[in-house]
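quick one: potassium ion bound model?
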Amino acid sequence: MRTAYSVETVRAAERELMARLPEGALMARAAAGLAAVCAELLARGRGRVYGARVVLLVGPGDNGGDALYAGARLARRGAGVTAVPMDPERMHPGGLAALRAAGGRVAASVPGRADLVVDGLLGIGGRGGLRPAAAALVERIPAGAAVVAVDLPSGVDADTGEVAGPAVTADVTVTFGAYKPGLLTDPGASRVGAVRLVDIGLDLDGAAVALEAPQHADVAALLPVPTASSDKYRRGVVGVVAGSEQYPGAAVLAVAGALRGGAGAVRYVGPAADAVLARFPEVLVGRGRVQAWVVGPGLGSGREAEVGRALADTDVPVLVDADGLRGLDAGVVRGRRAATLLTPHAGEAAALLGVARETVEAGRLAAVRELAGRYGAAVLLKGSTTLVAPGGGGAVRVNPTGTPWLATAGSGDVLSGLAGALLAAGLGGVDAGSAAAYLHGLAGRFAAGGAPVVAQEVAAALPRAWRSVRD
Ligand SMILES: NC(=O)C1=CN([C@@H]2O[C@H](COP(=O)(O)OP(=O)(O)OC[C@H]3O[C@@H](n4cnc5c(N)ncnc54)[C@H](O)[C@@H]3O)[C@@H](O)[C@H]2O)[C@@H](O)CC1
Ligand SMILES: [K+]
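yep, here:
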């Protein structure tokens, strides 16, 4: 897992470490790591550090201090380094002295040309959007300069990934000690570029994880593998309640996802049986014993009773998606014994929370936590960085494999079938949701290969995604 910790947790670990180290030691480690990444970028971009034009955007706190000390290191290697302060009266004094001693200079405005801009305006001490003085500097970042963000892009909230107003968009973010949730969650995540983690010696063992991003090995460990004693019931039968006269395709796609999710069998319940069977003759039709239900894709309106029937089966895991989420009763969900996984997109989440869609998009992490808390169930919030929150609080999972190509009709239906198959195999709500999102994202990338993709191709690419995760 790639783990991210809250600002509060990082600060506590920093305090503990600082108490044992000479003053300035942590900042020196941070600056050394930052300067090394900057030097690497300059060497890659223009062959050498010597003679490079480097601009430091310097805020009033320690984030600016990191930038100044790193700038001093680059100046000692022959770069021309100019620091531009947000507030000339408030610059880290030690950092400023180091930069000056190394031959760097301070200017009131951002130079028109630069090879590299170091964003040291705000780090984990930043609150709210960039104020006008900082925003004015960001606007002047010269076109063509590589942008390296110190700890996080200024204007991105470290804990939530929220971006209130203007913010830096970095090519590389050099973060210290630990990932912060805002680096992995949109809208912040799309501002960070490549993330480089610099070890400054923080001890976070046993600290509460705020957000975690599974990697191949984590997902591989979750995926069910049939054994010699498996039969179709042991592998899990998924019941899919989906599709309508108007949306038969949703049924086909949800079934496709379920079949490729390792289910022993898929049972289809609904009015699109002909369409489903024409495509997948292996599907069972009609009610019967299942190990998990998927309800909702393409149901249309007026089908609440079918959703209620699945949820009433309180010992069987249920995934509720799309139309099934309409007016979903929190009391019913909370009363269930087996896992429940809700898989809304931002619009559906907004409707459940009674807020505007934009509110969910701007505060995705808060929204998914709030929904999971209200329903006491795992919630998977779809989007560019899909999030999965546990019903009982604790670490939220963020999916690192997503691709914008997956924003295509029917893609969510495939995901719900896939996650339902994993529920049927015995995974809990968060594990099923996050493993499904991971495979689905990979399949989307494989199927797209940089070109538009349709949902059935995503389903068809799922076996390749499984294989790549297991390799
Ligand atoms: N604490 C530590 O041990 C270490 C901290 N490090 C660096 O220190 C940073 C945190 O430093 P600070 O706590 O000084 O905080 P920051 O440097 O992130 O910023 C705090 C300052 O910015 C101002 N500010 C806050 N929000 C603003 C806004 N929206 N617009 C304009 N000004 C705003 C505040 O008034 C405050 O003066 C980290 O992100 C990291 O870069 C590193 O040197 C590693 C070690
Ligand atoms: K920054």
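The mean pLDDT is 95.
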